[in-house]
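In this section we walk through a basic example: taking a raw amino acid sequence and producing a predicted 3D structure, encoded as discrete structure tokens. The instruction is simple. Fold the sequence below.
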Amino acid sequence: MKKALLLTDGSIDLALAVNRWVANQPDAIDLTVVYAFALPFDSNQPLKAAAHRAAKQEANANLQQWLNYVSAPWPGKIQTETILGGPELVMRIHLLLRHYDYLLANLEQQEVVIAFAACKNHILTELHSLSLPEDSIGERALYGQGARAYYSKI
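The resulting token sequence is shown next.
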């Protein structure tokens, strides 16, 4: 079975693009969805485990909410991960340590494209673009104002 990697930013547009991409795949695909998160920075406060725990819980909640917009049932299995770090570092780690057949990315996700370019000579992963056609605006309207407001905060 083929494996794909996706770094999500939590946007509905990205979920819709993933749905379109998988609909055009002839075989089942196992998808690993990664959500990179950062800790809130306050120079007056020391780094504490509670801050990490709160940020991780928020990241997990955002990721689970995003998964509601991905096609169900998925033709394969979906694994999710929330990882502390910047998007570019998280992508490099995944691309270099694990084997993926595809890296799914909206070309506007510059961190993903930069990480892919940096690892290209060491991996066999293919970059698949998730571009959205103009008619996606109407499709997004089906999800309602509340969903758009939620994802605009992420």
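Looking at the output, two observations stand out. DSSP finds six helices and five strands in the chain. The CA atoms of residues 28 and 75 lie 5 Å apart. In the next section we compare this with other chains.
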